[in-house]
Amino acid sequence: MTAIDWTQIYKKYKGMWVALLDDEITVVGHGKTLKEAKEKALENGHDHPIFTKMPADNSSYIGGALLFV
Fold it and tell me: Fewest CB atoms within 10 A around its CB: which of 24, 36, 55, 59?
């Protein structure tokens, strides 16, 4: 399995829902809500896309633990 580079998708659709084809790189719909992305995908003739939400920012999170002593 090879990694998929969503850099360009992220830059264009930051903070939005996107509908992708099975290749996981072709965007067939997008919107501020999942409903909008689905409607656009359907308008474009795709009734079974993969949905994901692009993060609003590209920051990392490193989890931690709160210890009570």
Answer: 59
